[in-house]
Amino acid sequence: MSRNGNCWDNVVAERFFKSSKTELIYGNKLISKDQMKLEIFIHIEIWYNKKRRHSALNYKNVDEFNNQFNYKNVA
């Protein structure tokens, strides 16, 4: 573990939030709290989990990676 406030102790979560803020929130016009919740839900469930290519998965999306090994989606 690193010191308090140092991002190296949870790099995966820090990277996810940085990507989400960059791709979704920054540059987006001001909208209501409920609209932002819906936008974040759509971003995570439809874009990030289904379509976005991840460098850790050899630049494949989650479905392509799972189909490569014949894994079935558990969701």
Structure notes:
- Pfam families: rve_3 (PF13683).
- The protein has 75 residues and is an all-alpha fold.
- The protein is built from 3 helices and no strands.
- The mean pLDDT is 76.
From the structure above, extract its key features.
75 residues; mainly alpha; 3 helices; 0% strand; Integrase core domain-containing protein; Transposase_IS3/IS150/IS904; RNaseH-like_sf
Short account of what is shown:
With 75 residues, the chain is mainly α.
The oligomeric state of the chains shown is single chain
Which structural class do you get from the secondary structure elements?
Answer: mainly alpha
Largest sheet: none
- Arithmetic mean of pLDDT: 76
Number of structurally distinct domains: 1
Q: What percent of residues are in strands? A: under 5%
Number of strands: 0
Q: Calculate the terminal CA-CA distance, rounded to whole Å.
A: 32 Å
